[in-house]
Fold each of these.
Amino acid sequence: MSNQNRSTPAAGGKGSLAKQETPVFDPEQHLVFKETPDILTMQDIGMAPDVGVSPVAVTQPFPLFSQEAIRIMRSEIFKPEVTQNHSFSSNLAAAQLRGYARDHAPFTRAAWNHPSTVAIVSKLAGIDLIPWSEYEIAHINLCVKSEEQAASELTVSKQPMHASPDDDKPIVGWHTDSYPFVCVLMMSDCTNMVGGETALRTGSGEVLRVRGPTQGCAIILQGRYIMHQALRALGAKERITAVTSWRPRSAFVKDDTVLRTVRPVSDLNELYHDFTEYRLEILEQRLRAARQTMRACRAAGRLFDTAGHKAFLAESAAFLQHTDRELVAMDEVRRGCIETVDLPDVAVGGAAVC
Ligand SMILES: [Fe+2]
């Protein structure tokens, strides 16, 4: 399969790939995952046992994609049609690229959907997962600075009294994610970077810092259930992360997905189609299973389980109401405005615990 991989643009280049040179994702060549990293469990961070869909809270950074894979992914996000048509910004994050993978990033799309990648993410997350939808493949958070700006940050950060009020602001403020799990992949060279950790709030309200990944490495976080913020990275000309969101593969695991943090920064036509289709699919599977169980009970001569069926109907009604609540009329969505959590930000420069 590797002989299908053609020439790729230079690392960090903005060159676009000619159609005939589209590289093919090859897990043997492009996946570099080796060992299971250290993992903090939900219990480790003081969460109640019924919170979340898995015992795993967050992983340490681990190598996931090769440098060549990162180079190809970068070439896909720098295509003019991606920056022109898929750029979003909000009060939480200044520059993002969203929903481009389906039409403009065949390599990135194949990389995240490949069964080998899905198996790695599922293994580390402690539950069988699949990408949340095509729309949420490799959402990009962008932070690009001039060389002088990056260098001066490092000098200024050593003199806190002279730092501007914005220097300690997180790159993304306190929030819980809309989706059960995220895998955050670092796309930039972090050699001179200071900071860039993820801060988590534990069950008791303490703040833990999780070390940020280096280029080609990733972390996995059960972000729907854990309050977190991405801390600013100083000293680097750019910090580009690709965030892919995940949900349980099984239709019989709870789906607490909301669209709160993504609705204002999305093509709602795409987002709503993806969301409603898989929610209906989950319901379809649950209804079919309930019907089969009921028929089997009857065939076995057992009494109708009134209480059990009413509980199932109540759960199904709540599931439908949840879907309905998340579908805010498109003309009522305030673009770029995401509700924030009023907690003190974490300063750059503390020690990471994980
Ligand atoms: Fe997040």
Amino acid sequence: MAYKEKTCPKCGTIHYKRGEFCSRSCGNTRKHTEHTKQKIAVRQTERHANGDDIAEEQRLALAIANERHHDPVPPQQYSRLGMNQFVDDGDLWTEV
Ligand SMILES: [Zn+2]
């Protein structure tokens, strides 16, 4: 690897990746100060109260993420037809 050996400040894993963290989930653990948190909260409240485009985008992204979470689509599975089965018009038929 091109990068020098580093220890992830979050989990302590030794890695050779770019940046100081070993993974995206470790990198996402940045701590904001109370002052910064307050500023983010105030701005976010304004956005949601006024219904601006960014707030709408965030609401939509969250809705889509929740949709994915609540309504998972099972992976398609293929199975062999039985000796007495056939497919016609997209339906599976069984001859008796
Ligand atoms: Zn880590």
